[in-house]
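USER: I would love a firmer grasp of how sequence relates to backbone shape in proteins. This is the protein in question:
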Amino acid sequence: MKANQKGSNKAKEILDLIGYEDISDISMEDLMCGFDIIYKEEELNNSDGKIIRGSFRTLIKVNKSIISKQRKRFVAAHELGHHFLHEILELHSDNTNTLNWFNVEKQAQRGLQEYEANDFASELLMPEIVFRDFIKNKSFGPHLIKDISTRFRTSLTSVIFRMLTLDIAPIFVVFISNGKVHYWRKSNDLKVWIPDITKLPPPEDSVAMEYLEADYDFIYSGVEKAQLISKSTWFKINDWEDDIDFYEYCIPTKQYKTIISLIWEA
């Protein structure tokens, strides 16, 4: 089945319309002003972003309490996606559930709208051609994800999912919420056998479990962010296979009690 590309296709139209192949140097406020959209950052209760469509103008709000500037930018781009893609939305709020790429259950409750808005934001902030050119010949790891986030001024989570959807690196990604695996996805090039892990705690010998036991506090930094693990930690192996080394890198978020775990071959 062909993936829904309505969001990314619309973002490409917008980039072509404004004559930019990359908007990293443009503020979201300036971008929206060009489309006669009002942009504000203010305190929002139980919401990260909000779109209010009036009779003549659209108002987009982003929660000023969001600490990460990159996440604010992604939230704003997500709401802009709703503006261009979903005309029937007159008043709509988004929070960590609908904005999270990996919370497929919450996104399913909203139909395709949240996926399309995320897809729009990803292409708008990380245009595929520019994205692929930036990472060309660069080795995969935490440093690359951070470099991409800095280069394109967007969140780490959006970078990870962008790499998955473009199938750029052979990686396995697990989303853990409240101590249980809620979602996983792997790139096509990663040939592994994945056991039934959904709705179960992460493996005892995984780095993700270390972060759970540390109550989502950061344990590793620098080059130690990518920890060596055995292939059998997350994957099933045959008797004739060697239990080779893999890396695991985790991004914990104490506020939401979530962990994103990336696993790839060493």
